[in-house]
Design goal:
There is one protein chain. The chain has 13 helices and eight strands. The chain is an alpha+beta fold. It has three domains: 101 residues, 2-Layer Sandwich (TATA-Binding Protein), CATH 3.30.310; 92 residues, Endonuclease III, domain 1, CATH 1.10.340.30; 38 residues, no CATH class. The strands form two sheets. A six-stranded antiparallel beta sheet has the order 1-2-6-5-4-3. Strands 7-8 form a two-stranded antiparallel ribbon. Strand 5 and strand 6 form a beta hairpin. The longest helix has 16 residues. The chain binds a DNA duplex (13 and 12 nucleotides) through helix 6, helix 8, helix 10 and helix 11.
DNA sequence: GTCCAGGTCGCGC
DNA sequence: GCGCGACATGGA
């Protein structure tokens, strides 16, 4: 029997140990994030593509799951690169997250159980909270098609690339967005009125006034975390709930048009529903409300 | 041309 | 606290 101490690195290859029952295909596609650059999901081969700027340079990572999670890089990785790639991917794939209590609660509902099974309830996230915050802002008051286009332009315009290959670019760090400034955002990246919020968040992080990464794995009580997210420009109640989900806090529902129509259709015969109605439906799921809604079958 | 999309913000009451 | 319109962008 082969036992992999993590990370086991050979040239450009990393293996990640996974929790029992982990399915990459389910986790990658459980929500839309896999379609936002610099992620790309290839359903044919079951490969999650991701471009990351590692200490040693911009790297194309191809993540598959023949048995354990296998990460192939398009270049030889130093051990520092491999450690960093592993750290980012373990966070993104939520390999440390314990959802066993949610699974136990799902057991009583077979349809829900089946909806949860492919991903185990793990929703893909980005290596940095900065990237997730920007992407959540890009989902507000627009269509999914435009969200994808905005993320693609942000990466294509400002993302770092390996020498000689500008087609593969990483997500721009806050400094790159801050330096780009409002003209580039307005004329090239075209985030609409979100330009202002995105630029301000990037500037605040770049200047050290805002430490988003410290909110990951912080033991702040959820109400305090909520307050800090809500304070970000362009981040209202819906975006806050989504970001709390990103951070592994599932007790708050993101109230938006999708939730409204789902609850109306499934529980109220298509009639108009109030915010109170929506909350009541998932109330008994306590700290698992977001996941209970997310995987709630039609 | 008009409407609106997985909202947010600032205003007036 | 609550209701209302404006807000950039691009597709229907």
């Amino acid at each position: 029997m082969v036992c992999y101490d993590t990370p086991l690195v050979t040239y450009g290859l990393i293996r990640l140990q996974t929790p029992p029952g982990f399915r990459l295909s389910g986790v990658a596609t459980a929500h839309g994030w896999h379609a936002l650059a610099p992620y790309r999901w290839d359903a044919e081969t079951g490969t999650l593509h991701r471009i990351e700027e590692l200490p040693g340079g911009v790297t194309h990572l191809q993540i598959t799951q023949p048995d354990t999670i296998l990460v192939r890089a398009d270049r030889t990785l130093t051990s520092a690169d491999a450690r960093e790639a592993e750290r980012r991917l373990r966070w993104s794939l939520r390999l440390e997250e314990d959802l066993s209590e949610f699974h136990a609660l799902c057991a009583s509902d077979q349809a829900l159980c089946e909806a949860v099974r492919p991903s185990g309830g793990r929703l893909l996230r980005c290596p940095t909270l900065f990237e997730d915050v920007i992407k959540v802002v890009l989902t507000t008051n627009t269509t999914w098609t435009q969200t994808k286009a905005m993320a693609a332009r942000l990466v294509a315009t400002l993302g770092a690339h390996a020498p000689g290959d500008p087609s593969l670019r990483a997500f721009p760090p806050p400094e790159a967005v801050a330096v780009a400034g409002e003209i580039v955002l307005k004329e090239q990246i075209r985030l609409g009125y979100r330009n202002t919020s995105v630029l301000r968040i990037a500037e605040d992080v770049a200047e050290g006034k805002l430490d988003l990464e410290a909110l990951k794995d912080s033991d702040l009580p959820t109400p305090e975390l909520r307050k800090r997210l809500l304070a970000l420009p362009g981040v209202g109640p819906y975006a806050t709930a989504t970001l709390l989900m990103i951070l592994g806090r599932y007790d708050e529902l993101g109230i938006d048009t999708e939730l409204r129509s789902h609850v109306s259709r499934k529980y109220f015969n298509g009639e108009a529903v109030s915010e109170k109605d929506m909350r009541a439906v998932y109330e008994h799921w306590g700290q698992w409300r977001y996941l209970a809604y997310w995987f709630d079958p039609q």
